[in-house]
Amino acid sequence: MTIRSVLIANRGEIAVRIIRAAKALGIRTVQVHSAADADMLAVKLADEAINIGAPAPKKSYLNIDAIIAAARAAGVDAVHPGYGFLSENGDFADAVVAAGMIFIGPSGEAIRLLGDKVAAREIAKRAAVPTVPGSDGRVADIAAAEAIAERIGFPVMIKAAAGGGGRGIRIVQSLAELREQFPLASAEAAAAFGDGGLYMEKVITRARHIEVQIFGDGRNFVHCFERECSLQRRRQKVWEEAQAFLLPDDIRQRLCASAVALATEVGYRGAGTVEYLYDEDSRQFYFIEVNTRIQVEHPITEMITGIDLVQEMFKVAGGAPLSLSQSDIRTRGHAIECRINAEDPARGFTPAPGTVTRLSVPEGEGIRFDTLLYAGYTVPPFYDSLLGKLIVWAEDRNTCLDRLASALSNLTIEGLPTTIPLHLALARDPSVRKGAFHTRFLESWLETDFAAVDGVSAEVA
Q: What does pTM read for this prediction?
């Protein structure tokens, strides 16, 4: 291991997760933070903390110069970008290396090839992986967007070329909506990723969202099987499972093989995720994008494989070969992750920052809670609303759902509204238990089956 110290260029629960993995390996940790995050848990856990600027992300967590200056001042060996912010910015990866440090992730070149959603589609086509009909590259302007929409037909999805996690995405049903939403999507992408470039895809209705965890050391490449992320609200994942329930084994094998082929194509190094849409009726899958960083939902893969993906990232970045071959990677049981957000389900999921007055976390076999919270912590209003991730594992899916419902009932976060009632209702829902859902299931379910939210809220207050 050549890495003895690391700077975490991120915040929230992923910063806490990275610090804990680093400490387990004996690595000194330096946490950067904005002026609004001086009291966050990651700052308290790190060996050293450095204020890099004002609360606005552009002035702190998206400020490459400020982060590089902090890393130099702290004398660290490496920088871990987490997810979001600069994690898929090839220029940031290059800047870290140019400053004489290790970027814990793929090379800047690989990020540009795969992290750029438009370039990744081209690589997928070369690797004979089916892609969703859409634009051939970045869409230059609204006139080009209108021509593409008329060619592939509505509904059309507008997506950020440089981002992920649902940011900058719009689904439009008509030319009028396209003209209205195109500039808004570009502005959101620019704010989130520092790049307002967009591309377009045809919307495939009633598809399932399946993704494959990949890992490489630049010479050897493996997959850690797949996750299902079909339960989404406004293109934001809220619930993930591993493995994908009801996915046929032959489709699983083809998906995982195609993901490894993409990693091999660019000599991938580190953790990444290849995302697909799967049409159950036609048994066809379509490549949609690669996320060239650790994924929010990585814990469910860790729960079914026993692999610590963040520790593996440190080891590979430090020059070690992959510690596992494909034949070593096996799955056991089933895992589900619920994203617990500071949002009010009874008021249209309005973001609800505030102070946590009481926190009680369930414990027991197969239960894990990755979080940024502690009692007395005030959630700032400047960033996304993710408070933590409740991850539950069991020998089979039905037992996992039962254990999840129990864990959710015993998770108490007082002082601000959360999405715990939503997840408890999903855990008890007959359609969810049967696996009868797709990427557009949740929006309509919220309008009908979630009407009893007040009663659920009372149970888990």
A: 0.89
